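Quick log. Single chain, no ligands specified.
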Amino acid sequence: MTDATGEGPPGESSEVTSIIQHTIKAGEQAAYEEWLREIVPVSTRAQGYRGINVIRPSAGSTEYTVVLHFDTIDNLRAWLDSEERRKLVDKVQPCLVGESRVEIKTGLEFWFAPPSPQRRARPFKQFLVTLSVIYPLTILIPFLLHPLFERIPLLQSLYIQQFLIAAAIVALIIYVIMPRYTPLIAKWLYR
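-> predicted structure:
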């Protein structure tokens, strides 16, 4: 199994993502789907697990991309190197062409990481995706926080309000929206 290491020193505690690619042999897609139904619930019990996305092959392709989100690189590596996962990967190996390809990404670099090295998100698409997330949040978050700002005297400073609005937007983008949004639009984004 090929493993690209993440950036930063071991033990770095920022959200990390692992992109695992499998090319499936002809006629083995049903067996691979059954394997996914087995391994996904097991991975959710791993320490630091934050979420998973499975990007199924587009028409004419046999490549699956599994995107795992963990809280720290140590917890992700513990899952990737675990005996339980190794046994499950060994079990699916007869369905695969070649070995698993595993890449670890940290922080923001994952947003536009292509599921395949041959495909890259074009800059104008990255701009449109980012704008489509940030623009609604710049309207919604201040609207939602405004009642709080009015009630708490400490929060009536413009600088504190802007800081809280920016922090809420960045947190939502990094931890909630982008890890789910980009896999949903992957076919368009990397076309």
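The two ends are 28 Å apart (CA to CA).
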